[in-house]
Design brief:
By secondary structure, the chain is of the alpha/beta class. 50% of the residues lie in helices and 16% in strands. It is built from twelve helices and eleven strands. Helix 2 (34-53) crosses helix 4, helix 3 packs across helix 4 (72-94) and helix 10 crosses helix 11. It is globular and about 50 Å long. The two termini are 27 Å apart. Mean pLDDT is 93; it is low at 1-7.
Length: 306
C-alpha cells in the first residue's frame, strides 16, 4: 500500500480538497426539499461538473466507440442527460429516508418477483445483479422495503475522505454493506449462505476479468457473481431501478432468473440483460464510466488475459 493510501483509497491534498468541494455541493443540496433537490443536483452535475471534469467528453467518446451511427443530436442530448441522471443518483443516495420512503408502496415488477419470494421463503441464497443504470440502489431500497434481507458489495472509492461518508450514506438505505475486498467478500458469502440476498454491480471494467462483450465490444467483466451463485446454489436475478419520466420515481424490475451453466455464459447473459435495458433507456446507463478501455487490450493479452 502506497504512502497516503488507506484500505478505502488515497488521502492526500488533492483528495482532501476534492472531498470538501463534493461535501459542499451535497450539503447545499440537502437544504432543499427533496422534490427540488434531486433535479437541482442533476442540473449542477450535468451543466457544471460534467464539462469541467471531462464527463461530457467521456460520454461522447464511449458512444463514438460502441454506437458510431448514433445521430449527433442524440449524442449531444446524452452528454447532458447522462450526467444529470448521475447527479440525481448521487443526491438520492445521500437523501436516506427521503429516498427510501418512495419505495414503501412501490410495486416490484417482472417475472423474477415470484422466484425471489420463493427463495426468501425457502431460505435459498440469491445473487441480485444490476448495473450503473437508473439508480443502482433503487432495487436494494425497494426489496428491503418489501421485507427482503439484502446485503450489497460495494467498490471502495479512490478518495478515502469521500469513501467514509459514502459508506455511511449507502448504509442508511440498508445494511449490511461489504467492501470489495477479501474480508468484505468473506462477509458477503457468510450472509448469502444464511439464505439472504447479495447485490452485485456487474458493469465495471476489470483488468483480470473475462473477455465478454457489452454493446458489441470486448468488456472485461468479473465472473464473481456467477461463480458464487454456482458454488452456493444461489438464484441469480437481474434487477434494475428504471427512472420514471417525473425524474423522481422508479419502476423496480426483477427479470427472470439466469439459468445455471458456466460462469462465462451466465455473466454474458447478465451483460446482455443490462445492454438490452440500456438500449431502451440510453440516458440512464452511466456512459461516464470507462467500461471498455481498448487501449489496455495488448497489455492484457501479453499477460495472458486477452
Amino acid at each position: 500500500m502506497a504512502l497516503g493510501e488507506t484500505a478505502g483509497g488515497r488521502k492526500g491534498p488533492v483528495e482532501f480538497i476534492s472531498n470538501i468541494a463534493i461535501r459542499l455541493v451535497i450539503g447545499l443540496a440537502m437544504l432543499v426539499p427533496y422534490k427540488f433537490r434531486v433535479p437541482m443536483a442533476g442540473w449542477i452535475v450535468s451543466r457544471i461538473v460534467a464539462p469541467l471534469a471531462g464527463y461530457s467528453k467521456r460520454v461522447k467518446d464511449n458512444l463514438a466507440y460502441v454506437c458510431p451511427d448514433l445521430p449527433d443530436e442524440e449524442v449531444r442530448r446524452l452528454m447532458h442527460a447522462v450526467p444529470d441522471n448521475a447527479g440525481r443518483t448521487l443526491i438520492e443516495i445521500y437523501s436516506g429516508k427521503g429516498f427510501t420512503d418512495r419505495f414503501v408502496d412501490a410495486p416490484l415488477t417482472g417475472p423474477g418477483v415470484v422466484a425471489l419470494e420463493d427463495a426468501h421463503k425457502n431460505k435459498r441464497p440469491v445473487v441480485l445483479v444490476t448495473g450503473h443504470f437508473g439508480n443502482y440502489d433503487a432495487p436494494r431500497a425497494a426489496l428491503i422495503a418489501k421485507g427482503f434481507n439484502v446485503g450489497a458489495l460495494y467498490r471502495q472509492m479512490n478518495n478515502a475522505y469521500f469513501n467514509e461518508h459514502y459508506v455511511a450514506a449507502i448504509s442508511k438505505i440498508g445494511t449490511p454493506v461489504f467492501p470489495r475486498s477479501r474480508r468484505g467478500l468473506s462477509g458477503l458469502i457468510k450472509f448469502l449462505r444464511a439464505g439472504n440476498m447479495g447485490g452485485f454491480l456487474i458493469d465495471q471494467y476489470m483488468f483480470d476479468g473475462a473477455n465478454l462483450t457489452f454493446f458489441g465490444k470486448t468488456a472485461p467483466t468479473a465472473l464473481s457473481a456467477a461463480e458464487l451463485a454456482l458454488k452456493y446454489d444461489a438464484l441469480v436475478v437481474p434487477t434494475y431501478g428504471i427512472r420514471q419520466p417525473n425524474g423522481l420515481d422508479f419502476e423496480v424490475v426483477c427479470e427472470a432468473p439466469i439459468a445455471h451453466s458456466t460462469p462465462e455464459e451466465m455473466t454474458q447473459a447478465l451483460n446482455n440483460s443490462l445492454e438490452a435495458l440500456a438500449r431502451k433507456h440510453m440516458d440512464q446507463w452511466f456512459w461516464i464510466h470507462r467500461r471498455w478501455k481498448p487501449e489496455q487490450a495488448d497489455l492484457r493479452a501479453s499477460m495472458g488475459r486477452g
